[in-house]
Each structure stands twice: as C-alpha cells, then as structure tokens.
Design a protein that fits this description.
200 residues; alpha+beta; Immunoglobulin-like; 2 domains; nine-stranded antiparallel β-sheet; 9 strands
C-alpha cells in the first residue's frame, strides 16, 4: 500500500508541475500576442515615395533632371520589407555609367550603416545623356536621401532627392494599400530621416 501511495503522490506532483508549466506557457503566449498587436511607430517611407532629383552643388550635370518612385509593397519587419524602385533621368553625361544610391537602407539609428549609401540600381546613359533603371529588393529601414552618382556606388554625386527643406530635390510620400495604420500621437518613434505620418 505504501508503494501505491508513493506512486499516487508522484502522479499528483507531476500533474501540479505540468499545470504550472501550462500556465507559464499560456502567460508567455498572451504576452507575445499583446506585443504583436501593439501599435508600432510607422515610418513615413512605408508608402509610395515620389522622388524629384535636382543637381547637387558642384555637380558635373548642371542640366540634369530626374524622377523616381520607391514603393513599399509590404512584407515583414526589416530587413525583409519588399520594395519596387524605378528611376528616369535626363541631362546627364553621355555614354557614362550611373548608379542610384539611398542613404540608410540598413542599420540601427546612429550606426555607420544608417549613414551609409547603398546602391539600388545602375545604368549606362545614352548618347543623348538620358537613361534609367529599376529594381525589386528587400529591406529599406529609412528613406531620407537618394542620389544619382556618376560611376558606381562610391562615385561623384550629381543629382539628389531629399526630404530636407530646401533640397536639392524632394521626396514626397503618399500612403498606399500596404502602408501600416498610423499610430496614435506618441505611439512610436521615427528615425531621424523619416518621420511618422501626421494624423488627420
């Protein structure tokens, strides 16, 4: 009988231990669900971004012009958000390689990556000095400055589009169907290069 009582006591302790583990798992799952449902700060660039390029100071393409569109297509958290980018330019050096770069595609705020320029696409201008390129890519942490550079990623900047007042160039964002919902005031922090949408 004593042996049977011991087995019964062990089973009771096992049930209580299993019950405690189940409660702990349930609490953890509820916490994860709450975090997932909590509103996050949304960067302005998670939208359709219209870019207008203008010559930078000292540009070798003083007559250069350009337009572009960088479109947020949804996806998960960085670095796997999905983007489509298209660009068209005119007034460039003829028969020359050019590269479109964006500042801060990757990296945490304040990191070297957040200040770095990364290539998006490249092309060779025509004899008339025009051309363009496009790409579909993953990862765009922020979008405050885009440049057209002569040559490769580290080449001379000739045209620029920026959110900064006074330019050169401009970046204007319009929400699209993939844009996350706006957060309530104070509901999230924005990066220095992309600010949250204002609520109507």
């Amino acid at each position: 009988m004593a042996e049977s009582g011991t087995r019964s006591g062990d089973a009771g302790r096992a049930r209580r231990g299993g019950s405690a583990l189940a409660r702990w798992v349930l609490v953890a799952l509820v916490g994860i669900a709450a975090l997932a449902a909590a509103p996050r700060g949304r960067a302005e660039h998670e939208s359709t971004n219209a870019l207008t390029f203008a010559p930078v100071d000292g540009s070798s393409a003083t007559e250069g012009t350009g337009t572009g569109e960088i479109v947020y297509n949804g996806g998960g958290s960085e670095p796997v958000s999905r983007w489509t980018a298209t660009f068209r330019f005119a007034g460039l050096a003829p028969d020359a390689n050019h590269t479109v770069v964006v500042q801060g595609r990757f990296g945490e705020v304040g990191s070297a990556e957040a200040d770095a320029f990364t290539a998006v696409c490249s092309f060779r201008s025509s004899a008339a000095g025009d051309g363009g390129c496009w790409d579909y890519y993953l990862g765009q942490e922020r979008l405050g400055v885009a440049q057209l550079r002569l040559g490769g990623e580290a080449g001379e900047p000739v045209l620029q589009a920026t959110r900064a007042p006074g330019g050169p160039g401009a970046i204007v964002s319009t929400r699209n169907r993939h844009s996350p919902s706006p957060t309530a005031p104070g509901g999230g922090a924005a990066t220095p290069l992309a600010t949250p949408f204002a609520l109507p």
